[in-house]
Amino acid sequence: MTNFKGFQHAELPLGPLTLLTGLNSSGKSSVLQGLALLHQSYASGDLAQLVRDEHGFLLNGELVRLGTGRDVLNEDFLGDEPRITLAVTEDAYHYEWTVGYEAEQNLLPLVSTRSPATEDLGPERPEGDATVNPAYFTAGFQYLHADRITPAERYPRDHQVAISRGFLGVRGEHTVNYLRHHAGDEVPEGPLRHPKAAEPGRLGDQVVAWLGELCPGVNVQTAVIEGTDTVRLSYGFGSTGTRRRPTNVGFGLTYALPIVVACLTARAGGLVLLENPEAHLHPRGQTAMAELAAASAAQGAQLIIETHSDHVLNGARLAVKRSVLAPDQAVVHYFRGNGAGSEVSTPKIDENGLLDQWPHGFFDEIENTLDQLLD
Ligand SMILES: Nc1ncnc2c1ncn2[C@@H]1O[C@H](COP(=O)(O)OP(=O)(O)O)[C@@H](O)[C@H]1O
Ligand SMILES: [Mg+2]
Hints:
alpha/beta, Rossmann fold, 2 domains, four-stranded antiparallel sheet, binds adenosine-5'-diphosphate, binds magnesium ion, DUF3696 domain-containing protein, Bact_Antivir_Def_Nuclease, P-loop_UCP034888, P-loop_NTPase
């Protein structure tokens, strides 16, 4: 990307599983927003063809609400003219979109698109043919913001969003309805299948088994609230199966539910963006969420996770050590912002799950405080 928010220019290698870590306001969410911005512009038809002024980056939509041109153009933009470029390289192709600047507009007009092949693919695809798009535009996309659903009496029942499109909502608000409808769906064989699930291939049972990592013995039920456009969620505990409303159950379970469903339902070519999957979870549960995300990546989906959790990092390292993921499939970026641009370093995980570098400030707070305590 070039001239997008805090980045003058940045190129970030992404793996099947990528962790974005680092200081507050250092640009982690901006990376996710760039990918989401492309998706929402594509989904609304704004990237489909090059018609100047009428198509471009749709700054405010279902996935992100970024404001106007003034908000997203880097303050010290590179180049003579204010232009923003977002690009994605995937396998043999590089896709690139450049828009112009309108300070007060929320649709930034496309100036150019490019999608050159990065390898020689023969004559099938002429240079400049922008009709092919990255897989994630169409192969399944979820983006769960840091601010997600909290325990409630009811959740929306929107057939079009949850059932037809399979979109969980940026707050996970459609998860309960999705689960109600899709509980019987197949979870493919592999590391995604939790060994404790009652019926190993059934989505509903896999959700219960993975939630059991957060709260052993928990059970989940969804139902329509008759005569309304809402659905209900309830939890059961232990063998007695007493049902409880989410409002009487710990916050963390409901907060994690969309993460669990997003990871279990992502498939090859799909992209899942997660902000702080660790929120409201105890340390062991945080590690389990990383293990689940790694399993999802191992089965062909791509996950990009913004996290402040050592336990999420360690869960990813464990997944590599246990050969769920190859070392080069788990990518870690550490962002250090200084307000005027971001600096990114990329510690590598080896086959034993060890990191080749620990930049200053990168998950070293336990050592720092221990040193002071023992001083
Ligand atoms: N138009 C802009 N020009 C320059 N910097 C910007 C612009 N918009 C946002 N920023 C900077 O980008 C950063 C946004 O960080 P964000 O991606 O939300 O961080 P994180 O998710 O790492 O906490 C902030 O430091 C903010 O000052
Ligand atoms: Mg953020």
